[in-house]
Write a structure and sequence with these properties.
alpha+beta, outer membrane lipoprotein receptor (LolB), chain A, about 25% helix, OM_lipoprot_carrier_LolA-like, lipoprotein, Outer membrane lipoprotein carrier protein LolA, LolA/LolB/LppX
Length: about 210
């Protein structure tokens, strides 16, 4: 067991060494590429799988659902194990729980959810490089690029320690999101079957 633990530690060490910080020139180029892609993107559809790791639980929990983005409308809908959804639309957030009850939140009056909207929508529109709200560090590992965002505001930093956005295979849209809470519990969200600029019926954005 000691030998196995040592091997795991060595492998993790090698993995972390493979990831290096981007140079200022690489950061500038990366931001430009993401913004160019964002300018060409009118919609995004994807399936997602979310794995949540909680320190007090032995096993991680897994959920899945669909993601839809069109203009200022963003739908984040869980289909399994329970069905619930979050719908951002301009300055409004609607949350539908597993019993079908809908709660409406004015984002102008709720800083926490407003910042969540900026983070979620910005992750896919290219407006994620908000250095006024986040301290951002950029890394690369071959064709994989990551941006690690640490919130500056006291309100958001009470709940979220950092968010890592991963861009894979030289794509300029996010493929994976890791959210680390202040307790060090964390969730990893992986987007699958991602498609850009497909037609999305407006009925999709009705809870």
């Amino acid at each position: 067991m000691k030998y196995f633990a040592l091997m795991v530690a060595l492998l993790l060490g090698l993995a972390s060494m493979a990831q290096t910080k981007m140079t200022p020139a690489e950061i500038t180029s990366f931001k430009k590429e993401v913004l160019i892609q964002a300018g060409k993107t009118t919609s995004i559809t994807a399936d997602f799988e979310e794995t949540k790791h909680v320190s007090v639980l032995k096993n991680a929990s897994t959920s899945s659902g669909i993601f839809r983005l069109k203009g200022e409308k963003l739908l984040w809908q869980y289909n399994s194990p329970k069905k619930n959804a979050m719908l951002f639309n301009k300055q409004q957030l609607k949350i539908k729980n597993d019993k079908g009850k809908i709660t409406t939140i004015d984002l102008n009056k709720n800083k926490r959810f407003k910042q969540l909207q900026q983070l979620m929508v910005g992750s896919y529109t290219g407006n994620l490089f908000d250095e006024e709200s986040f301290t951002i560090t950029y890394f690369k590992n071959g064709a994989v690029k990551t941006a690690v965002l640490k919130p500056k505001s006291k309100d958001m930093s009470k709940h979220i320690k950092e968010v890592t956005l991963t861009f894979k295979n030289n794509e300029n849209t996010v493929s994976e999101i890791k959210i680390v809470e202040i307790s060090d519990d964390y969730s990893v969200i992986i987007l699958k079957n991602k498609k850009l600029n497909t037609a999305i019926n407006e009925s999709v954005f009705v809870l």
